[in-house]
Structure formats: C-alpha cells, structure tokens
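Input chain follows. Return structure tokens only.
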Amino acid sequence: MVSETELLSSIPTQLWIGGPVNATGGATFPVHNPATGEVIAQVADATPEDAMRALDAAAAVQAEWAATPARQRGEILRAVFEAITSRAEEFALLMTLEMGKALPESRNEVRYGAEFFRWFSEEAVRVHGRYQPAPGGVGRILVHKQPVGPCLAITPWNFPLAMGTRKIGPALAAGCTMIVKPAGETPLTMLLLAQLCSAAGLPDGVLSVITTSRSSAVTAPLLNDPRLRKLTFTGSTPVGKKLVEQSAHGLLRTSMELGGNAPFVVFDDADLDAAVQGAVLAKLRNGGEACTAANRFHVQNSVRQEFTDKLVAAMAEYRLGNGVDPDTTLGPLINENQLDTVSDLVDDAVAAGAQVKLGGKAPGGAGWFYPATVLTDVPAHARILREEVFGPVAPIVGFDTEAEGLAAANNTEFGLVAYVYTRSLDRALRVAEGLETGMVGVNRGVISDPAAPFGGVKESGFGREGGYEGIEEYLDTKYIALP
C-alpha cells in the first residue's frame, strides 16, 4: 500500500472545474484527521464566484453531454468503476485519514461506492419512453425522457465516496452535468474521484467539484440561477429544509435524503443470535455515523434481558483506535462537535434514569473517540430516543405487544429505515407494511444496495437514489402529441 505521505501528496487540493484550478483569492481551509486532530491537507476554499465558474462550465457542455450516445456515457462510467476498483486501497486509506473510519469499513465503502458507477453505466442505455394510440382513437401519445440539465449535489462527510457516486452515477448516465459540493470535513476523496473521471474520458465541465468552508454562501447563487435545474442533497433535516426553501423561488427540482431515527424491533420469536449480529451491523457500521444506523432498540420484554446481555458481549469486542491501525474495529467520530453531541445525549439519558451497560464515557486524549455503548431502561422522554445520535450508542427499551412495538417504532418525525427481527413471515410482512419508513430490513442489519431504491418518508426526505428509480430523479418526462 502507498504510504500516507505519498498518498496525500498525490491528491488534488485545488477546485476541480475542467481540471484543477485555484480558488478566487487563493484562500484555503484545513482538513483534519479525526484520530489525531492534526491537519492533513489544505484545500482550496471556493467563493461564490468560483461556484458560478463551475455552473458556467456545466451549462456550456450540457447540450453536448446530453447528445452523447448513452452507450458512450455508460462506457465512461464503467471505466471510472474500473479505475476506482484498481485503486481501492488508496481510496480506503484516504477516507480513513479524512473521515476516521476503520480501514475495513473504508474498503467496504469503496466497493459499495464504486458499484453505483457500474450499476448506472448499465442503466444509461435503459432509459425508456413509450408510444401508444390515444384511448379516444385520435392521434398518438409519445412519451420521451430527457436529462433535467445541470445539477448541484451537496454531499455529507460520513460516506465521502458513496454519497457522491450515488448522485454522480445516475446524473451522468442520464445526460446531466453536475457540480458537487462535498462536506468540508472530507473533500479529498471527491477530488480524487474527479481526477479519475477526467482520466477515464469524462469531458471537461461535465463534473466539477467545489470545496469550501462557507457552504451556504457559495451555493446560494447557484440555487438562484435559472440554468441550474436540479438540487440533490444528503444531510441533516434542518439543512435540507433550508435548501428546499431556497430552491423554491425558481421551482428547482429537488431530492432530499435527510436524517433518520431508525428503530430496530426485536420480537420474542426472533433468532436472538441473528438479531444481535444484525444489531451490531446496524449500529456500528461506519461507527454509527450513518443515517441508516439503528438508533432505538425496541425489544419485546420477554427476551429483552437475553438480547441485552448478548448485545453487550458483542459490542464489547469492538476495539477503539486509529482507523489505520489493523487492530482497530471502531474509529473516532468526525470532529469535536460530534463527540460533544454524542456525549451530551448519553449524559442526558443517564441523568433521566438510563443504565450504562457498556461504555458511556469518552476516553479523552488526542482525537475524537467514543466507545461502543449500550444503555438500558431508557425513559421515553430521553433525548436519545428522539434525536439522531450519529455515534456508537445503542439505547434499549422494551415493549409487550406487537401493536405497542409498532407504535413505538413509528413514534418519530423521521421515516428513513427500520429493522425487524422475527421468524414469522406473517408478522414480518404485517409490521413492514405498518412501519412509516421508506425502507425496511427484515432479519437484516444492512440493507443498502445500489440496485435498490434508497430514500425515506416524513422528515427523512423525498426522492430515491439507486435502483431503477435512481435515474428517474435526473430525467424530465416530455409528452409529444402526434396526429
């Protein structure tokens, strides 16, 4: 594997607008390693003027890219998939350095993120319309799909590669140009991806990356420009609401993948060993810093103690440490603010009467670490049951009847994903249909799949990413009336 120093020295740190370019004024901002707090890079700090440069480039090549044969667009995406795969270890190390996750987690993300380029390379040639006689017998109906036009993608820090490829893949496959504004905490992975896209033959201007420490100021002029036709965002619900408000003036087409508060429901007929294994995956994948992470564990009271004991034993096996250490299975949180948030939520729950069965206190020292934590007897009014913890903390609460368990699971304004463990097919289907979420995992702790539609309901947003549905977010439907 390439050394950390060699890797970091090879990564573009300028803006990517038809290639590497300096930010107007030459300002930069630091990128930190969450395991040490040290600065690992200085990245160009874009201005609103730079954002408009990126939109100028996207608008200038939009018609040409849309007219590029779908097969050719797909082959470029496939070439990028191959390039990511061939440099998987570099991507994994880079993500661990800027985001903190353990290397095995980063490797999993590289495989997952690359797959969106392969999936949508195949979907590029499967954009269909339809032709039919009008029911009244007069004329014909022709339905045609066209790319929406230049898009802006705002991506979060928790999955530096996959949250970008999940948006870039379908946009490029559909014939749209795209500007990506990655999170300020993790811009390096996206800059490396842009470099690979260019080397794979993607024309200049089709994909731009603008890195900035002033997100709202830089994206505001883009949202107000009529040339931009689509906004796709993954992040918190409060920020998503603000972006929807800002985009409403121009009736900008939007898709929002927002916060979650996922329930993990275990019934008394479940295979408890399988449920614990799924719980660990649903809770500790990405260190708990995922919108799909199980946030509330609702366990039927007759098996709650046994489940708790098994979960404590399983989570106690996770080793906290620097993500590049081969023995580490749980890396640091992204920054000091997130460490404070997780600590505050746990402290609030304990003050309200919750019992700490594992972890519960940050170790201190360098880096932003928090241990795997299990809480029991968590009262209903504790903030940790209402707010997304985004950390390795599992609060457990009990219920008696199926109806009570379902009601508790739905007792949130969020609706992204839920997990259900039961041996009964009837119960699994009944509860899955009753859950107010966009996705349900039945006897599975990880559900994300590029071939499946990802998205939520209620305050978890709208629109879908991945699957056959993902490319539709980047297509307009045009009806042509024929005589």
